[in-house]
Amino acid sequence: MTHVPISVTVDGTVYDGEVEPRTLLVHWLRDSLGRVGTVVGCDTSSCGACTVLLDGRSVKSCSVLAVQADGHSITTIQGLAEGEDNWHPVQTALKECHGLQCGYCTPGMVMSTVDLLSENPNPTEEEIREGLHGNLCRCTGYHNIVKSVQHAAEAMGGAK
Amino acid sequence: MIPVAFDYTKVNTVDEAVAALVSGGEDAKIIAGGQSLMPVLRLRMAAPEVVIDISDVAEMQGVSDAGDAIVIGAGTTHHAVMNDPLVKTHAPLIAMTTETVADPQIRHRGTFGGALAHADPAGDLPAAAVALDAVMTVAGPDGRRDIPAKDFFVDYFTTSLEPEDILVSIRIPKLGEGWAYHYEKFNRTAQGWAIVGVAAAVKRQNGSIEAARIGLTNMGPGPVRATSVEAALAGAAASDDAIAAAAENATDGTRATSDLHAKADYREHLAKVLTKRAVAKAAGV
Fold first, then answer.
1. Is residue A96 part of a domain?
2. Does the structure show a pLDDT above 90 at A62?
3. Is the dihedral angle over the CA atoms B100, B101, B106, B108 positive or is it negative?
């Protein structure tokens, strides 16, 4: 089987590798780069747990071939914080508003929220629910997640 | 799950894509955003020997103004389509319908042409395409040709594209002044697939409806143009009663099926209710 060379910027670092064309982006991130913060949830393009940013836009990394990321830039949940004590405002908001229970969906929720707030810094509740339409949480319901996004928007200076 | 192994080739032009399809034959599959193909590959419902990546074909990206129509490159993502000023101005029904497709992550990757060529009966965009008399520009080994939307959708997941053809762009005629639009969709919250959807374009004049165009999603193996509703609406009063009466014709020419989401008779009920809502909202009633 032919392997294909790829060069992908992941969380600011350029990684050169060789992949089988059938390799999913999420598997490359986890198995080859060890970046296991991005998780596989449903494996059917539904749940959004594996969401990462591709050139700044949210995508489900179980539904992208690693080879299609060649030459592009990926941001994972592990690329957001500036250090252990300096979380991204969206991460802080989820903690402060109890926006998670088991936490499995959280990496995807965070990445989708970062994308949502980059496009719409001051979303309404309805826009938040629509913006997170591609992310499923099976623990909490969405009440505190929505609250977390509102809190993050405020912390990031979007909310009025 | 992990897809069956395949070879991968990336092309830069439409001609290269067609050449790759000719050499790959029926064992070749096109990938752009991959939001229809990837789930199928992962479930091993398809096992192509070669996957041809067209996501960098410049000609297939973006939207342009062609005078009496706009032309949407088949590889333009849903996110780009629904935010495009030309689409919003000249084909708002396409923008409105696209906003309901799947979820934000999938709209960032999935493409307008991919959704049409995939021809899922529960996909939203084919209904809008037939309602607006879209024209598909297709490239094959013998050159290019145009296929009207009404002849493009043939059956479940089947279009009139030949195995060596590729959908290059979609021409959406401008309807001009006086038209208003709505896409009404009934779906499960956790998934974007329409149980039934109705794409409506309505032209109002004074207190009546001058003309209407209606496309139905998931009321048969492909999108259905609800011509009986259109005929009943032409010249009708722009009132709840008149619209409801016209919408009673929404099942004419449909072939709804039963599946785990809905039985056929329930889909028929939905088609009438959603047609009434779509037309009323478009007409501002």
1. yes
2. yes
3. negative
- Beta-carbon contacts of A124 under 8 Å, excluding residues fewer than 6 positions away, are none
From chain B, the residues in CB contact with A24 under 8 A are 2-3, 38, 42
Q: Specify the amino acid at residue B31.
A: I
Q: Which CATH code fits B62-173?
A: 3.30.465.10
| Whether pLDDT at A80 is above 70 | yes
Question: Last residue of some domain: A60, A79, A98?
Answer: A79
Q: What is the CA radius of gyration of chain A?
A: 16
Partner-chain contact A134 B108, CB within 8 Å: no
* pLDDT tens, residue by residue, B127-148: 999 999 999 999 999 999 999 9
CA distance B136 to B223: 15
Tell whether B53 lies on the interface with A, counting CB pairs under 8 A.
yes
Q: Do residues B99 and B82 lie in contact, with contact meaning Cβ atoms separated by under 8 Å? A: yes
The domain total for chain A is 2
A26 is a domain residue: yes
pLDDT surpasses 90 at B25: no
Question: Distance between CA atoms of A30 and A40, rounded to whole angstroms?
Answer: 9
Q: Which CATH architecture has domain B7-53?
A: 2-Layer Sandwich (3.30)
Size of interface A-B (CB pairs under 8 A): 85
ipTM of the complex: 0.96
What residue of B is the nearest CA neighbor of A67?
B8
Reported as type and span, the H/E element at residue B241 is helix B240-247
Domain boundaries, chain B: 7-53, 62-173, 179-283
Reduced to 3 states, what is the DSSP secondary structure of residue B265?
A: helix
Query: Which site among B103, B106, B185, B188 would you substitute to test the A interface, given the most A Cβ atoms closer than 10 Å to its Cβ?
Result: B103
Nearest CA in chain B to A23: B2
8 Å CB contact of A45 and B108: no
With vertex at residue A110, the alpha carbon angle to CA A8 and CA B109, rounded to the nearest 5 degrees, is 50
Q: What is the pLDDT of residue B148?
A: 98
Q: Look at residue A160 in the predicted model and tell me its pLDDT.
A: 46
A44 in contact with B at a CB cutoff of 8 Å?
Answer: yes
Residue A140 lies inside a defined structural domain of this protein? yes
User: What architecture (CATH level 2) is domain B179-283?
Assistant: 2-Layer Sandwich (3.30)
